[in-house]
Structure formats: C-alpha cells, structure tokens
Design goal:
It comes from Streptomyces siamensis. The protein is mainly α and 504 residues long. It has helices at residues 19-30, 32-47, 51-75, 82-89, 92-127, 143-162, 165-193, 211-225, 230-233, 241-269, 272-277, 282-290, 298-327, 346-362, 369-398, 402-405, 407-437, 449-472, 477-480, and strands at 2-3, 132-133, 136-137, 338-339.
Amino acid sequence: MSQQPYGGDPPSLRRTLGVVDGVAIAASSTAATTSIGIGLGVTAGVVGLHLPAIMLLAFLPVLGIAGAYSRLNRVEPNAGNGYTWVGRSLTPWLGFLVGWVNIVATVAFLAYTTAVTGSAMLQLAGDAGLHDLGGLRLDPGSTAQTTAVGIVVLAAVTLTAVTGVRTAARLQSALLVFEYVVLLGFCGYGIVTGPHPFSLSWFDPFAIPSTTALAQGLLLSVFCYWGFDAAFTVNEEVRDPRDASRAGTITLVTMLGLFLLGSVAFQRVLSEQELAGHGAEGLAFFGERLAAQPLAALPLVALLFSAVASLQSGVIPTARGMFAMSRDRTLGPVWSRVSARYGTPAAGTLLIGALATAVAGLALVIPRLADMIMATVNAVGIVVALSYALIALAAAARFRALLREDLRQGIRAVVLPTVSAVALLGLGGYLAYSFYTSADHLEVSADNGWFLLLTPTVMIASGFVAAAWAKWVRRSPYFVTGLGTDADAPGPLIPSDQGTEHAR
C-alpha cells in the first residue's frame, strides 16, 4: 500500500541520508567520468585545445548558481527546489516552467545516457573478444544496439531506486570510488608521460576561435556541471537540510578539480584531431594510448560505472521533483504516491524509467549515436542555463533586502546570483540566435541549427501549455493562492533552529 495524495496529511519522504549520501547522489548525477569521456571530445570540437579555460570560465556562473541554491535551501528545503523557489519568489508560471524543463531535460539526458551505457557495454564486450551474438554483429556505434542494451540497464537501476534512496546512494558510492581511482590514476599518468607539451595557452579564453565557439563551449561546459543540484532534490530525505547544501558545494568543487585534471591530461596525450574525432569512445581511446590490455579497459569500465550511476541518479531527483509538483496538484496524483514499504515515490520512479525508455526509442530516428549525443547536449544546455538563471534570479529577489541591511551579504546573495543569471541567459540567447542563423531549413541532424533550436523551444513551450492545464483544469493551489508573491521570504519558512542562517 502507498500513502495516498490529495487527502489527509501531505505525503512525506523518509529522512535517512547524510552528507556523504548527498555527495554520492549529486556526483553520480553530474557524472564526471561520463562528462570527461564524452563531453571533453565534443567540447574540444568547438573550442579546440582550450578545455581547461572553458571549464574554468563555466565554473564561475555555476558557482554563483550554487550559492543561490544553498541560500534558498536554508530557508525553504523542498524536494521541488527550483520549482518551489521560483514560484514563490518570482511567479508560479516561471516556477512551473523550471520544474517542467528539468523533468523534460532529465528524461532526454536519461535517453542519451541509456545509449552511452549500451555503447560502453558493447565496447567492453568487444575488448573481451565477443563480437557476435546469435548471428548479430555487435557494434558500439549502432544507436539501435546501444539503446537496446542500455534500456535493460535503465530498467535495473530504476528498480533499485524504487527500493530506497539510501540503497541507491550506497551503490553509487561504491561505483564512484572505482571511477575516481581510475580517473586519477590514468589522468595523472597521462599528465606526466603525454607526448604533447603543456601550454599555458590552454588556459587562455581569448585564444578560443570565435565568440560563437566561446558561447557554445560555455554551454557545453555548464552542461558538464549540471547535476550538482541533485543534492537539493533529496533535501526532504537528509537528516539535516543543511547537509544538502554541503553536499552540493562539495560536489561542485570536486567536479572542477576532475574536469581540469581530465582536460590537461587529454590534451597532453591526444591531439586536437584525436580529441574531437572519437566522440563517445574518447575515454576508451585515451586508455588505449596509455596502457595495454587488460589495463586499457579500466577507463571504459569506469565510464560504464559512471553511466550506470548517472542513470540511477537521473531517475531519483526527477521523481522527487515530480513528487513535489504532484503534492501541489500541478501534476497528477500518481507522482506523489509514497510506498509504505520503501518510503519512496515508487510509482513515479517507475514511470520516469518508462518515459526515458520511450524517449530513447524515439531517438532511434537519429541514425548515429554521435548525432543523438550532440543534439541532446545542445538542447539540454540551453534549458539548463534557463533553469539555473531563473533560480538565481529567485534568490536575488527573495534576499534583495540584504542590499540595504548588509552590503557584503547582499553582494553574495543578490549581486553574484544576478550576474550569474545574466551570463547564462546571455549565453543561451546568443547560442539560440547562432543556431537560428546557421541554417535556412529544418533537418533532423546534429549539425542543423534549426533542429538544435527546435528541441529546447519545444521543451519550453510545452511547459507553458502544461502550466495552463495545471492552473485552469487541475485548479492547483500553486497558482490559485498566489504562492509566488512574497519575494522577501516570510519568516515562517525559516526553520526555528536556522533563523540566523537567513542573513548568512
């Protein structure tokens, strides 16, 4: 039996997590190994040998966003985080949009990670000498094969997520330890022994080929950091809400270190053409350049573990976000049903897995795995930038009184999030414009600008349609009661033992 929504006490989740669990969930969601193994090659195709520069630049606005998350989480820990915060501080319409685009973006991310997982498994099978199965030649570059294998893995990790977030966090912790040991070992060895000389120009953002390349590279890099906020989606399941803020910050700083390490190591070992030309198989190629089999397979195993963990950590925060939205009756009641046995939104978790599976199947219309990855990453980068920017503006609006009361705190709570938001909105807008002007017709292709622009446009437009349905058909109190009007964070929202945190 499950706790029933829309009647009696609001459904609640069990508080079982600590800081380490939050870090495991957020780090798995960010998926540093996957981002290094795939994202670096894609980004190098845009900015050339300036990966460290672009990763550092992208970190600055994301750091401002992380500060906004932490401060908002102190005064109002909520599984819906941005959906709730933006709705309260700005307007319910934009709040709903944040919740909606995060759901849609994560489902798209799960769909492409499903194929990445399948590709890693098929590459490992090839390394082990298994090239045919039942007369079918196994091809790591086949979108159909990689998606089919990945869907099996997605089903397994979804079932694990249903049984409890603590169980999932423990599994992710074990996978992360292996991943990071392999990454540190191979990247450290690559930095010491790589044939290409180190150059300070790698850290020079002014050497990036063009403004368009800079904007696209920054969006791709912001996408690599995307996921640290997963720590805030379980803030109703941590024993102390402040642990979610600590976990998010620890994860973000760790990701910066890993991305810089990976960027320098890849550029020491691989040429620009090798970096940009191996796409989804970049980490495996990197391993083969540094070691012979079977050691060369370790980075590929780490990539597989990262993909598996990120599949599971993608399902978990999305189900929590939809739980919070269902609790407000902006989504149907099935999403806020809590399993009496496991204390998780079990039905919603299973449905998220099913939705991602359906989208992965639809993605088969794009013939090559690289096309699917590029199209999805570009689309998600724009909507993630929009979502992060709105949350930062919500923090600036809510804490704007600090500019009068304490200028130093006001700069941290209002000015820095606002600057970060403007930067991300500017990047997203510039990239959207460059996509629009780069083509004169629509074509389902990863290098067609109209196609790349259509995907985030559909995500955003569908959010406003769904918001209208929630307001006028479901008559959700999220809209009817005007929750988005008190921009200065009313006192009752601040937990009694954290009242002094409001001004910190």
